[in-house]
Amino acid sequence: MKKVELKLLSLKRSSILKLESTAAEIDEIVFELFSIFEKEIDYDNRKIKVKPFQKRTEVLTDMVYEYVDKYKEQMPQIYKFKKYIDSLDKDEYFCISLNTKQNTKQIVEIFNILEKYNNNTDTDIINKSADGLFGFVLDNYDISTYNGKKPIHIGVSCKKKRVCRFCHKTYPEVRFGKKAHAISEALGNKSIIANEECDSCNEKFGTGIENDIVAYLSFYRSFFGIKGKGSGQPKLKGANFCIQNTVDNTVDFRIKGDGKGEFPTHIDALTYERISLQNVYRVLCKYLVSVIDSSVLPSLTKTIDWINEDIVSEQLPKIKVQILNNIFSMQPSISIYIRKSNNKNIPHIIGEFHYACLVYVFVVPFSSQDDKQFLSDDEIAKYWDKLHYSQGEIKNKWTAYDFSEEDRKKLVFNIVFKEQNV
Prior knowledge:
The chain has 422 residues and is an alpha+beta fold. It has eleven helices and 19 strands.
């Protein structure tokens, strides 16, 4: 059996068409597929040089329909090809590649060219802007993002062939019957599913360390009305307050008291929860391990031991946090930066977690590919000052927090009220 992957990329969406058949059949199927596109053909040697950038024309659309009709019984997945072409606008350009893995910088370059073809944008201006803001990142990291905008299952699809990423056990010693959410469902994730998390680990994390991050973010969840497992509006009740986003999208915030006196300028909102900040850090890394390419996992053996609470760290790298008022999403997301250069002054893996209007940027600790722990201000500055996070308007809006505390402490939200003229 021979497999072929055709990657399709436009400014709006991407898709991967997977074809598999016997060697002789697949060669003929692929030859006919590429005959659809603009190309140069060497008939004597049966070779096709297909142009990477194509345009959806009426002729191309008709040829795609004809091709799909011919092979739909043999390969039902071919409908995906027709669906992708239908999603494009008339005369819209898109990019195709066969069995090619592109790094982040190459993908950015493809998008720039598509932007030029589709919108007549000056790519020189785009490239200069990208180099100034993201040049260091693109030269040193491959980036992947999981935002939950469309359903995605990470890992091996066949349950009997799965290996749990956290306990390393396989079927039938462990089962994979439950739907494991790569980011906690309680935080609003419905779409990003981790295939390679067994039922036992799913239960352990769901009743253990994940509760700490759900509690830690509970005020924002209730304030913005981000729904988790239930269908109702989330509500947070503490010892001296209650907050809920109502059905008409207004925030009902109540302070317990005798109702006398002036409205307070601030309040220490006392919850009934006790959390470990180190567990919050563990869960951020657990989210990342759930979706990261499996080829990276051997470097994270000690990280996974730490996530499993088999080891405790006295000091962890500080997490950078920022509130972005101009960026908000009801879906949590995570981005992963994996070092591709030999520059050991920068972390092997950086995670970026978005929740509502919050952004958390963190180093994944204990990677075997790191020579440094990135604890000191000097070690932090050597990489942070070169990243896009430290550029432009957001440069001075980051706050560094220490999440090394292992002991469980009472969770208190410090709320400051400011009067605003409307």
